[in-house]
Amino acid sequence: MALLEQPVEQVSDSLPAFEWKTDDTQHQTPRAVLRTCTFVLDELVSCSECFPFVQPVPRSATYYHQEIKQPMDLLTLENNLYRGIYQTFEAFEKDLTLIWENAKHFHRSFDTIYHQAEELRHRFEQVKSHIHGGESYIAFSTSCTDPSIIPVPEEEQETPQPIEAACHQESYLYFIQAVNAVEKGSKATRGFTHVRPLYNTLNYRFFHYVNVLKSGGSVPSYPFPRLYITKNRTLLTEARHHPHGMLAVMTNVMIAKCTDNPNHCRLLCDVVLVRPLGECHSFDETTVDPAMRYEYFPKAWSKVRIVRVVTGVSTLITVDMEKCFFRRAFTTYRLSFRPTDVKKAGDANIVGLFMKAIMDPKQGEHQDPLETESLESIGSMELMYSPHLSYSHSHLHAHLNSHSHSHSH
User: Fold this and answer.
1) CB 174 within 8 A of CB 332
2) How far apart are CA 89 and CA 41, in angstroms?
3) The whole model's pTM is what?
4) Residue whose C-alpha is closest to residue 252's, from 266, 263, 267
5) Strands in 206-299 per DSSP E
6) CB within 8 Å of 38: residues ≥ 6 apart
7) 199 exposed, middle or buried (CB, 10 Å; 0-12, 13-18, 19+)?
8) Which residue in 151, 147, 127 sits closest to 137, CA to CA?
């Protein structure tokens, strides 16, 4: 029997409701509803047409809000799901439909956003047809496409696995250099001019959570943020399953060449230790704008649980490591004590220092790297590149708004 031939919440009485708590409020959602709605959301955020509809339209867009009385976006929809607001699939679908109905009401039929809304609606209809057991003509983001049997990543948190912090000979460090919306000057951002606003939007929840944690605040337990990458999805999947593996997202990366040793550089960055959860999803490339550089377009994403955020982490790297690992953002890399990895890095001792510094970071949390450690204090160096390190919620919105045709849905 296809999943939606009966009400989703009645698909299986053997599935207990998904329960969680925020502050003093207890939430509960039928597990089948949670899985089905998450499946739909995952497919919608796996295509470029979702770009204008990920975040809420800013309140500053007064004319839009005068015209549109029930604004809706994908982030709000997912937040509502994890606040227990949707107890049936039909309630979820009613709010989801507002996204393209609002866009088509506000924009003219020849506007780009109008057509993106129509494409997103068409994708939803295809996904819904598949759930009902009908035919579908889209490429799904994962090979497992039965939402009734796919636990959502948030369900894995019900039985959390410990994260291995110690660095030893069997350790594997997987790492990604991610650039936030206001970083400038990094070699890793070259070639991302056209697609960077897309990464800023798709990775918004991740950077927002990191920023809140940096400031000493707390973030919701659910939903987990998604992390979109451009290359090496196989390593992202491997990081989830490796028994001695750890995934680190490095932001605000500053690299300075040591003048007293031409083979070494000093790296200063913020480290976000995360645990990838759930399936690694492909990003649909069939509708990619040819004007964008294909090789830097998002290729995949995974939900991650943020384990720890540490700012101002400083360590040595080799010049070979700088060339191999720090010239392309949103790419997954792997480093270990295997001879092939050490050969790539050029120095076994530096590999050990780097892996220990990133896997078990010691620098003070919630401090601005520029305030805790200046270039003068980390040795005699020649500056290679120094991106702007500050990050703020308001700056992010300003950056996105300047690139998104006001993003009025």
Assistant:
1) yes
2) 12
3) 0.84
4) 267
5) 226-229, 245-258, 264-282
6) 81, 147, 152
7) buried
8) 127
The neighbour count for residue 108, using CB atoms within 10 Å, is: 8
C-alpha angle 98-76-87 in degrees, rounded to nearest 5: 80
* The one-letter amino acid at 347: D
For residue 122 the two structure tokens come to 């068409």
The first and second tokens of residue 382, run together, are 């020649």
Calpha distance 62→316 (Å, rounded) = 50
Radius of gyration of the chain (CA): 22
Per-residue pLDDT of the chain (409 residues; tens, 9 = 90+): 344 444 444 444 445 666 656 655 666 788 899 999 999 999 999 999 999 999 999 999 999 999 999 999 999 999 999 989 999 999 999 999 999 999 999 999 999 999 999 999 999 999 999 998 888 888 899 988 888 888 899 887 655 555 555 688 889 999 999 998 877 767 788 878 778 889 999 999 999 999 999 999 999 889 999 999 999 999 999 999 999 999 999 999 999 999 999 999 999 999 999 999 999 999 987 777 776 656 688 999 999 999 999 999 999 999 999 999 999 999 999 999 999 999 999 999 999 999 999 998 875 433 333 233 333 333 333 334 333 333 333 332 333 333 344 455 6
Q: Are 244 and 164 in contact (CB under 8 A)?
A: yes
